[in-house]
Request: fold
Amino acid sequence: MTSLDAIRHSPSFSEAPTKSQGGRFRAAKAAEDDDGPLRLLAGGPVSDIIRAACSADEGTAAGAQFGARSSLRRHEGQPVDDSYAYLLDEDAPQKIRAILATTWVSPEALTRLLYDAFADISDRWLALQVLASERDTLDANRQAALDVVLAQAQDVPADAVRERKAGIHCAIKARLTSVEMRLEYTPAMLRATYRNFLSSNAPDIEVYQSWIAGFGHERRATVLQFVEGALVDDMQSADPSCTPTEFLTPLERLGILRRLRSCERTFVAQVSQSPHAAPFNSREEDWLHFLLAVLTDPATLDESMRAVTGKAGLLQDNGAHGRLIGLLHRACGELPGEPLQTPQARNALLDGLRLLAGSAYRDERSDGAFDPVSRHRRSA
Reply:
């Protein structure tokens, strides 16, 4: 089995820029998802989801951030291009002003300037739209170069268009969600998470594990809420990133991940708070990794048990081991089946726990047979 450490929290994604202190706004921490039925899947009004996601505090934070980006343009008496609201690059206004101040007379030169200033495809497209809004202020040579670059940007593969649109549609939600997180968790990281959610062919549990690895286990519900809100915003946009048919797969995955979130929260609370688990390990994060590991591959049960109990497992007697295994058997027996577990995988996990329980029981009886104090207690 892959080491549990391999899917533990890592502080940041290398491809995402560091969040600047000046761009931080504090907001109340979002409540845990209610794990109710997925209204989007059930055909209910998506406006409820949107209203729930857009609280007053979030609106204030978004307004402040957008205002900071456009204040220079207002000060100059110029109209504010809507593209600025979706640009996640904190220095976008200054970079665009620098490009406008540069003498570029060829499409290649302008393309190089855009790539040097904006690494992300969505930010680059939005910056290009801002430049287009300034077209009348440019000389004829720069206008001609800009027109060529705009035409080239329109003529790109479908995958690039999908990535670009997805990044734009989730940008506001990414910025709002980011204010609830620590500095190192940037809007760009959330944007990358949503794009990956749309395009990934990885198993559902592996996608969930990647969120935990990237943002920490304590933020998994926040990331799930962000992805759900971003998907709704994308689907309801005037120019969505996917066709209705293409949205079916992420919609199905979202329903599965909501179900996973609900059952893992119940499992982790039941096990980590039990007195039978306390002598071994009461850390919620460790029991979460245990559950995801055995759901992914029941054959890793023994190794996962050793990983989660650690050195404490060597210090406890067989009776304590038996009580812990009994607790896990009950908790795993309450987990839902498909699509999280096939019937074969579910049976394999429960059978493995029964084998461990039987082994612990036999060892406990063997210990008692050679323990005169224990034998005296039984006779008494």
Remarks:
- The first helix runs from residue 39 to 42.
